[in-house]
Design goal:
Number of helices: 4
CATH architecture: 3-Layer(aba) Sandwich
Helix content: 40-55%
Number of strands: 4
Distance between the termini: 7 Å
Shape: globular
Number of domains: 1
Order of helices and strands: EHEHEEHH
Oligomer: single chain
Strand order of the largest sheet: 2-1-3-4
Length: 86
């Protein structure tokens, strides 16, 4: 299974929802990068994604986007193939 990295904050309901969806798909570990405790990580996230909001989710090297993007990808049947890609 691909590695999952997520930029998050402590009190983000969308981050919680995204983590629940990923775990329901069998993702055992999510590398969380807390941007509320490390402002340099927020700057890095914004440079990489062009976005200011959390979560920002990466599966392998693919930037999925935020929670709504993750849910949309799953409804189109694209989440599992991305997670299972070699």
């Amino acid at each position: 299974m691909q590695t999952v990295k997520m930029y998050t904050t402590a009190v983000c309901p969308y981050c919680v929802r995204a983590k629940q969806l990923l775990k329901s798909k069998g993702v055992a570990a999510i590398e969380e990068i807390r941007i509320d405790t490390d402002p340099t990580q927020r700057e890095q996230m914004m440079q990489i994604t062009g976005r200011r909001t959390v979560p920002q989710i990466f599966i392998g090297n693919t930037h999925v986007g935020g929670c709504d993007d993750l849910v949309a990808l799953d409804s189109k049947g694209g989440l599992m193939p991305l997670l299972e890609a070699a």
